[in-house]
Amino acid sequence: MQDKILNLLKKKESYVSGEDISSHLNISRQALWKHIQELKDKGYDIEAVPHLGYRLASSPDRLFEFEVWRSLNTKTFGRKIFYYDTLTSTIDMAMDLGVKGAASGTLILAESQTKGRGRLGRDWFSPKYKGLYMSLILRPNMLPTQASILTLLAAVSICTALKSSTGITSQIKWPNDLLVNNKKLCGILTQVIAETDRIDFVIISAGINVNNDKKSLISSATSLKEQKKEEVSRVTLLQEILRELEINYLFLEKKGASQILEKWRQSNATLGRRVKVYCQHKHIEGEALDIDSDGGLLIRKDNGITQKVMSGDVVHCR
Amino acid sequence: MQDKILNLLKKKESYVSGEDISSHLNISRQALWKHIQELKDKGYDIEAVPHLGYRLASSPDRLFEFEVWRSLNTKTFGRKIFYYDTLTSTIDMAMDLGVKGAASGTLILAESQTKGRGRLGRDWFSPKYKGLYMSLILRPNMLPTQASILTLLAAVSICTALKSSTGITSQIKWPNDLLVNNKKLCGILTQVIAETDRIDFVIISAGINVNNDKKSLISSATSLKEQKKEEVSRVTLLQEILRELEINYLFLEKKGASQILEKWRQSNATLGRRVKVYCQHKHIEGEALDIDSDGGLLIRKDNGITQKVMSGDVVHCR
After folding, report:
1. What is the pTM assigned to this prediction?
2. Please, which residues have CB within 8 angstroms of residue A254's CB and are 6 or more apart in sequence?
3. Are residues B195 and A198, on separate chains, in Cβ contact within 8 Å?
4. DSSP three-state, residue B181
5. What ipTM is given for this predicted complex?
6. Which residue of A has its CA nearest to B95?
7. CB-CB: which of A119, A196, A200 is closest to B195?
8. H or E segment at B99?
9. Does B189 contact chain A (CB < 8 Å)?
10. 8 A C-beta contact, residue A300 and residue A273
């Protein structure tokens, strides 16, 4: 109902009479008044003037479900949303919901995280209302060993969404960091919960620095605000990410991984470069040649031998 | 403290005076009386006779932590136990505890399960006090793609423990059912919770029909009680399983998979037989030749071609 009231107010720049809203939505004036109060509590600045009615002066920068759903147009991605002001981590909540049987496409959003998580047990700094902190539950019909393609799919989808939603061109650092001008903008973490021969569910999580101020970021990180010199709508960006994720996911299901791999190659910052990959207490140095069909990185070492790594931290040399 | 009181009572077949127990354990007579009441509430039949003291007439058939710990002698497996009278499934609890950071070796036990789970989303019938329903959390230092060896390890360990603890010889049906006289005695389920390049934790779960009466079992299932014509101590069996699991796990960490695979080959009911394997909407028929180093089953089809399957349901033909 609050969604419908907002839609009516947003349609008109000026005042809408309470009577019009009430009769249109078939609710009492008293019920309308209560909903308006609740919207005000959520941060919507709604002016009420006697004899004129209500006017939406401004909307808060929040990821409320009904804001995300407005003209989202996905089939399943984000159709069910669990929204929180603060979580330890959207991943923890996604794990809990996934175990309890949450449907594929379920989205978990938090305005801030007290223990935001990155790859390999690292932290992700998650200040309130500044970034996008999201986890998406998927139940793909694939073997656990095939799941690493989903990491590449997520990187490709977010990269495309960043471009179409904000105009910012980002590059993918293998396997799944998004960089702008060699600084980290977005981290992606894919977790697989599986029996040895069957995926139960997958959690794709992303942390994106959106409206973080430059001074709050470490020197190796950047935000969309820093790049664009203006605030960016987190809702619009999130919607575009959900759409891109779903498009690529449905394509993967129907046609296989080749298009994802090709998009990844086009947007990556790693291939063709000299890299050091640190994995399991050792490192491999050489030229990053290509990614394999399962997402592994092929490195030609100085002795001419090509080696494949499935995991690790990449340092781009020079 | 209740553990210590039980130890004193179990040492002596006859009465132990309250004064002796109190002074030995340095607690008041009143505190002792309270502990005795709590033990009685748990089902321990403790006789109290004036001027003689206390005598343990019988112990209940329960999987209390202190019963499992008595002379367990493992390093980490089962050193931390979460014990419940009823759970939906030990797996759900293990998932929750694993996400919250429970240590490797943490064991979850339930006397009954309302939604006991088998492989591929199936049920596991879990009547109260009749079976062993357990989940073990492990944090192995291996890649997610290597985790299937843990399924074989669990099957081999439980097979060995069944033999040494009860004398019953069971056979492993690929990948991980335990059969006695071609009837199912035990189901094992391995779940992996992983980032694409790092295992977060693994849950090894087993359901074993121990003291189930024949009439409560479906015709394709059996219990240890049916096979032995007598009740079996679930605690003793559980301890032996934990010891075997730990021995094989430490061996795997140090020496690799070859011994696990060899033990599996020795105890299996599948290799050398004609099998039908149903996987992903089709089936493969042929002779089960061997298992691969990653636990896959190699099948020689009638056209002479050998095919490997990583998952599926096996039907032993003839």
Report:
1. 0.82
2. none
3. no
4. coil
5. 0.73
6. A99
7. A119
8. helix B90-99
9. yes
10. no
Please give the distance of CA B127 from its chain centroid, rounded to a whole number.
15
Confidence of residue A121 (pLDDT cuts 50, 70, 90): low
Q: What is the pLDDT of residue A10?
A: 86
Adjacent-strand bridge partners of B55: B47
Distance from C-alpha of A305 to C-alpha of B200, rounded to nearest angstrom: 32
Greater model confidence, B310 or A82: A82
Residue type, A141: N
Provide, for chain B, the percentages of residues in helix, strand and coil under a 3-state DSSP scheme, each rounded to the nearest 5: 35, 30, 35
Question: What does the buried/exposed string (b/e) look like for A43-81 if buried means 16 or more CB atoms within 10 Å of the residue's CB?
Answer: ebebeeeeeebbbbeebebbbbbebbeeebebeebbbbb
149-178 of A, contacting B, C-beta below 8 A:
150-151, 175
Which helix (DSSP H) or strand (DSSP E) does residue A149 occupy?
helix A148-166
| Tens digits of residue pLDDT in B159-210 | 999 999 999 999 999 888 899 999 999 999 999 999 877 899 999 999 999 9
Among A218, A214, A208, smallest CA distance to A228 is for A214
Query: 3-state SS of chain A: helix, strand, coil percent to 5?
Result: 35, 30, 35
> Closest approach of chain A CAs to the CA of B175, in angstroms?
10
Domains along the sequence of chain B with CATH = 2-58 (1.10.10.10), 65-266 (3.30.930.10), 274-316 (2.30.30.100)
* pLDDT at position A298: 94
Q: Starting at the edge strand that comes first in sequence, how are the strands of the sheet with A306-309 ordered?
A: A306-309, A297-300, A282-291, A274-279, A313-316
Query: Is B311–A196 a contact, with Cβ atoms under 8 angstroms apart?
Result: yes
State how far Cα A250 lies from the chain centre: 17
Cα separation of A50 and B53, whole Å? Answer: 86
In this structure, what is the dihedral angle of CA atoms B214, B220, B223, B224, given to the nearest 10 degrees? 120
Alpha helices in A167-257 (DSSP H): 224-228, 234-255
